[in-house]
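Researcher: Next entry in the queue.
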Amino acid sequence: MQVLIFSSLFPNSANPAHGIFVYQRMSHFACRPGNHVIAVAPVPYSPRWFRPSKRYVSTLVPKEERIGGLTTYHPRYPLLPMVSMPLHGWLMLLGTFPLVRRLHRQNKFDCIDAHYVYPDGFAAALLGKLLSLPVIVSARGTDINLFPSFRLIRPMIRWTLRNVAGAVAVSTGLRDAILRLGLSREGVQVIGNGVDLKRFSSVDRAAARDYLGLPKDAQIVVSVGGLVEAKGHHHLIIALSAILPRHPKLKAYIIGEGPSRCRLESLICARGLQNQVVLKGAQAHEQLKFWYSAANLSCLTSSREGCPNVILESMACGTPVLATGVGAVPELIAYPEVGLIVDQNVNSIVSGLETALNTPWDRAVIERYAHQRTWEKVAAELEDWFNSRLKPPSLSTIGDAALSQPSGVVAHSSDHTTGSPV
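Model: Structure for this entry, 422 residues:
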């Protein structure tokens, strides 16, 4: 199968971790026999006077490069962040159409695999119309949970979903939201993310703490995620201050970077937690297994998520997870032996932290549980879905569907579950 990946969420040499989950899924798809994949990852640019840092980053990204084993192109398109959001998909189309047309002439793609329904999926659906190519679009989270609430964006999202060959949702919640936007049930499949077992595996806790220079006798909590309000780090910090009197050896490390850093630093100081809570900034992806392995508990206190990789990555290192029950979290933390689900409020997080820090977790059980959901398994599910949506229906199938379903909608879905602990 010849597939063109179309996504601005994709790693590049200037930001190797950007959209790593898209790369992982499609690089494993490419490893399956008979598949050939090329990536087009558009990069926006802005006038220097508007946002020089964005312009500077775009100049660091080459027009063409190899990301792992995938040939990747980075065409540019103009963008004024926030100002031109309703035009974002159209601008992406204008900046990428000549390249995509040339690549299609050279490779004769079977389909376009687009990630993020808007703007990427919208632009990809337009490309599909222009090039007579079917498009599969993947919903990731904000594109379905938030963007449809914008009056000018919602019609474009609905149009996209109605003009693609099929959709992938990384959680059942996203699937249900897609159905409410008008896509038929037969057109959407739940395929969650996976975990890279070569990159995420357990390290002896004492050795991991030595490597990172962390105290050997501390109760360590880690939280991996960008410093943005939606990640809920402020709720976690307040909850940590509440349990500190009962956990005097508590240490928390928040790993990530973002615009909320100053606010979080002020909160840490206001709560007197300078010696207990550390903002470690962004860490190399290869370093994360040491942080997970060193920790007693991994936390994710978000207000919204798609299918957060950090949960499976933590579990693959044997570390239990405490997380808010948003997005695919209830599907990932499917059993109490691997973690706890809480509400996104301080009282619930406090109660969850107390329980989790006092629980004698079996890290081997947690690790084996995560190993059931590999990227190889995800790639196999994705290939099956592509084949089912891209294969022309037979005349008998059409006739049967017409007789049994006058509306043309087949009521069928296959929900993803990770299996039980072993």
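Model: The longest helix spans residues 88-107.
Researcher: Noted, moving on.
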